[in-house]
Amino acid sequence: AILEPVLRSMRLKRVLPVLQHYPECRLLDVGCGFSHRLLRAVEPHVQEAWGIDRKATEMRQGRINIVRASLDEGLPSTDARFDLVTMLAVLEHLNNPMLLMREVERVLRPGGRLVLTVPAPAAKPVLEFLAFRLGLVSKEEIRDHKRYYGRTDLANFMSGLGSMRIEALWSFQLGFNTACIAIRDGSPAP
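RESULT FIELD:
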């Protein structure tokens, strides 16, 4: 749909400043999509770029590795492997979001960061109008939303994770989206 590339570009701007903390970054993009655009955009800035999504086609090309898997079944990775995990517009699609977040916590190394974006409750009627009336965003994606998260909702949700500490939490895009940067406790991040 026509607005999705613009929204994706805005989310990428949330990731690039965090990526600078990790010169030899191993990045995991959870919910990378079938085209893994984020990974292609950050490839020059990372040592390894991994993506996982149920829609993706498995591949290895350059620094990019894509794994096709359901996000409801855990993450196929060893513990403490990644410096940075991104989940951009993913959490709202999950049946069991805490299960996946515990997996993210497991695969992040101490001092590693999570960049997370989710639509806020105010976005629901707007997204439904854009999808079902105008066809500007994917109807299937919007129909699949299970929950919307404001800042308080996301802070409460993240408090259920033992070793993750929120560094930044804010609304963006006129309050229609919520973003969070969290760091896994342990040794200090670079």
